[in-house]
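hiii, so i know i said id send this last week but things got crazy w the move. better late than never?? heres the sequnce for the chain we talked about at the cafe, plus the structure i predicted for it. fair warning i was half asleep when i ran it
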Amino acid sequence: MQQINYINNEERTMSMLCHLSALGMFLIPFGAILGPLIVWLVKKDQYLEVDKQGKDAINFQITMKIFFIISGVLVIIGVGLLLMAALVIFNLVIIIVASIKSNSAERFVYPAAIKFIQ
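okay and structure toks below
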């Protein structure tokens, strides 16, 4: 685990919000991507850590969306619904863990995230 030296409490809060805003998936389609994207675009130039964690959160959510689409195709052979349910639970758990780690000044590395945004 890598410790993070935040500039102030706002940077810590915004870093955590990069992860938590992905819960927008329960409100609107593509909310899991749009939430972190909005926080990242607004605060990336102001805080270095928000820039890093925002990119990580966006990359993970795009990866999860791709996995969700693949599992949607797999509904045809009968395993897709089970995979979709597992992906939703996995995504929710990872969002919560990443938010807690970020708020505790620790760097969280998302598992299985494809680096779309460098």
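btw Residues 9-103 form one domain. thought thatd interest u
miss u guys!!
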